[in-house]
Amino acid sequence: MTHVIITGGSSGIGLAVASIYAGRGARVSLIARSRDLLEQAQAKLAASTGAKADSIRIEAADVAEEPDVAAAIRRCEQAFGPCDILVTSAGVVEPGRFEELDSASFQRQMEINFSGTVHAVRAVYDGMKRRGKGRIMMISSGSGLIGIYGYSAYCASKFALHGFAQALRFEARPHGVGVSVCFPPDTETPQLQRELATRPCEAEKIMGVVRPWPADAVAKRIAGSIERGRFETFFGLTLYLLGRFGPAVRPVIHWWFDRAIAQDSTSAAHNRGVSERQT
Ligand SMILES: NC(=O)c1ccc[n+]([C@@H]2O[C@H](COP(=O)([O-])OP(=O)(O)OC[C@H]3O[C@@H](n4cnc5c(N)ncnc54)[C@H](OP(=O)(O)O)[C@@H]3O)[C@@H](O)[C@H]2O)c1
Fold first, then answer.
1. What DSSP letter does each residue of 27-64 carry, written as one string?
2. What is the position in ligand 1's atom list of the atom closest to the CA of 112?
3. Domain count, the chain
4. Which tens digit of pLDDT belongs to each residue from 205-225?
5. What's 139's domain CATH number?
6. Does the first or last residue of the chain, that is N or C, have fewer Cβ atoms within 10 Å of its Cβ?
C-alpha cells in the first residue's frame, strides 16, 4: 500500500493533498507542530474520505528541528512502511517591508520553509535511493518565481527551494527517485487568511487582482503532477509564463509592478496631504 508522508498535512494545501491520497486508500502520515490541529485533521480525513482512522498517522514535530522531524518520519516508516511519496507543505509566511522584518522573522521563514524541507527530504532520501523508487514533491510558491513587494524573506525561502529541487533532481534521477517542485498561487487556506491581515497594500495591489485558488484544486494538480512525474508545476497563465520564460517575461511584470506600486505611493502621499491640510 502506498505510504504518503506530508509535512504541514494538518491544514490548507497539505491537508487537501492528504484528502486525495486518503480517498485513494493510501496510508497517509501527517506531520505538523500542533497536536490539536493534527487530531482534527485525522478525524476530518476519516469522516470525509471513508479512510480507516488507523491508516492515517499523525506526528507532532517542528520541521525546523532536524532530529525531531527525522525521528517523526522514522516512526511513520516503522508503522506504515517505507515512504513512497513525500510532500513538503509545512511553511509559514510573515509579510512586511524589509526594514519591518527583524532577523528572527527572516531566520524563521528560512528555517521552516527551506531548511524544514531539506530536513524532511534528508529523512526519506537514503531509503528511497536504496529501494530505487520514491517521489518528493516540494511546495514552493508563485513567490518562488518572482520577487513580491513586502515578501523579501518569504521569496528568498521559496526561491531557495527551486535551486535545491533543481540540483537534487539530477542527483536523485539515476537512483530512480523523482524530485518535483510546485509554485502555487494565492490559495484559500488558513495561512492566506492570516497573511492578508499583514500584507502591505502595495503587495495587495499586485496580488489582489488574481482570485485565490481553492485548496482542493491546487491539491488535485499537485497529485496529478506526482502521478505524471513532472518536475515543475505551475498554476495559471502568468505563473506558467514566469516559470517557463522567466528572464523574458520578468521585465514586463517588473514594469507593471513598479507602476502599480508608484500609483499606490502617489495616492498614499495625496491622502496624507489631504489629511494634513484638514488638520
Ligand atoms: N496559501 C497560499 O496562498 C500559498 C500560496 C503559495 C504557496 N503556499 C505554500 O503552501 C504551503 C502550505 O501553506 P497553506 O496555505 O496550506 O498553510 P496552512 O494552512 O497554514 O498550513 C501550513 C501547515 O504547515 C504546518 N507548519 C507550519 N510550520 C511548521 C513547522 N515549523 N513544522 C511543522 N509543520 C509546520 C502547519 O501546522 P502547525 O502550525 O501546527 O505546525 C500546517 O499544517 C506552505 O509552504 C506555503 O508557503 C501557500
1. EEEEEES-HHHHHHHHHHHHHHH---GGGEEEEE--TT
2. 31
3. 1
4. 888 888 999 999 999 999 999
5. 3.40.50.720
6. C
